Amino acid sequence: MLLAENLNDIVEKFDFTESIITDVKWENDLFDLSLTLDYWWEIDNDPSSSKGYGSKLLKLTFMDCIQVNFNQSRLLIELSKEEIHPPSWFTVVKFGKVTKDHLDNLLNLEIVTLDYNNPWLLVQCRGIRLEKV
Fold first, then answer.
1. Span 98-125, pLDDT tens digits
2. How far apart, in Å, are the Cα atoms of 34 and each of 24, 31, 44, 68?
């Protein structure tokens, strides 16, 4: 189910803070990058659910990617697999536009997880889409 097809709608209606990235993959002949998010939201306004908070899986797709940079924390190398807790390692703390020189028809976006100085994902793409899984 399609929820939004442009950045303004996504930013106005959704807050990805505390969402957990559960899957990352390339689609559409390696042009589109999709992230699956375990998204937490207030369901008081959702008539099909009980009151309170819940989660649902959302798929955030960056379409026609020109450049994608993943930046894992250097701690990943220093810690053993047993010391790494993936849900905390891949919890979104910031999502939004990056201000930099770019072509007007491209989006420059970042997702920060562990380190505000080192975004986990920097992406330059033509469009963005959000769907319910």
1. 976 666 789 999 999 988 889 999 999 9
2. 6, 10, 28, 12
Q: Is the pTM of this model over 0.70?
A: yes
Token look-up 């929820």 returns 3
Alpha-carbon dihedral 64, 95, 34, 43, rounded to 10 degrees: -130
Tokens 């559960």 belong to which residue? 22
Which residue in this structure is represented by tokens 């976006």? 109
